[in-house]
Design brief:
The protein has ten helices and eleven strands. The chain is an alpha/beta fold.
């Protein structure tokens, strides 16, 4: 992952809450409580606790190696925490196998896109719906994806590997949407894209959210990510050190110095 910090003073290692963070009430869609994850002997996540409520866009912000992607891998069951709990819709999924996460409503567009390059656009989307039982609803979801991404409709028979970087990112998100997720996790969706495509991807991210999908976003473009986020968590070396409303963090002096170039 690309280091998303501009030169400046590091954020304080003491966890703080930024004023004006309006935290919803009720049962979170996703809750992590004191999660510790390891790569061998490397203590990658050191007591992560966070909530994502229905209808929110929540951003995870941090420098390269802070633990953002590791957090998504842990949520998705690709890396099992040694201690701590992960709950989805109030149910403990800490030890649930990764392949069952799609079934309960957790979808992900991974870092690096990871589309099937030798399959057509349509076949990639079909792979996203492979485990679904409600096959009768697939036409509606294909229509939704093609409405969000008209370029994919134009290239539905084209092999994924021949698409541009922006089109591949659209395909990766579209494939995740074909799982009909309650929670969509996006890992670095703007990586490697031209500025005009970055703006488009973030607009579509907001459109997806407005249609009712909750989003957990990991993104190197701190300004854009905080601009669309309801709330955000700042990670540093595996710990959450700051949390607040997206707009409040945009205006926070320490965050500006560390991630927005002052």
């Amino acid at each position: 992952m690309t280091d998303d910090r501009a030169p400046g003073t590091p954020v304080s290692a003491t966890a703080t809450a930024v004023p004006a963070a309006s935290v919803p009430t009720g049962t979170p869609l996703l809750r992590l409580t004191e999660v510790h994850s390891y790569y061998g002997n490397i203590h990658a996540l050191q007591g992560i606790s966070l909530d994502v409520f229905p209808g929110e866009i929540v951003t995870l912000l941090g420098a390269n190696g802070a633990g953002k992607t590791t957090t998504l891998k842990t949520i998705h069951g690709l890396l099992r925490p040694r201690t701590g709990t992960i709950e989805f819709e109030g149910k403990d999924i800490t030890t649930m196998p990764a392949h069952d996460h799609v079934r309960i409503g957790i979808g992900q567009s991974p870092e690096g896109r990871r589309i099937f390059s030798r399959m057509s656009v349509l076949e990639n989307l079909q792979m996203g719906s492979y485990s679904r039982k409600d096959k009768g609803s697939l036409d509606d979801d294909f229509a939704r994806v093609f409405e969000l991404f008209p370029r994919l409709a134009e290239r539905r028979t084209q092999h994924g590997g021949t698409l541009s970087g922006g089109e591949q990112q659209m395909l990766a998100i579209g494939r995740a949407l074909m799982t009909r997720p309650k929670l969509l996790m996006l890992d670095e969706p703007s990586m490697g894209l031209a500025p005009i495509l970055i703006e488009l991807i973030f607009k579509i991210t907001q459109d997806i959210n407005h249609q009712g999908t909750t989003i957990l976003l990991v993104e190197q473009n701190a300004r854009m990510a905080l601009g669309v986020a309801d709330r955000a968590y700042v990670l540093q070396t595996g710990r959450i050190i700051k949390t607040g409303a997206g707009q409040a963090l945009l205006e926070d002096e320490e965050v500006r110095k560390a991630y927005l170039g002052g």
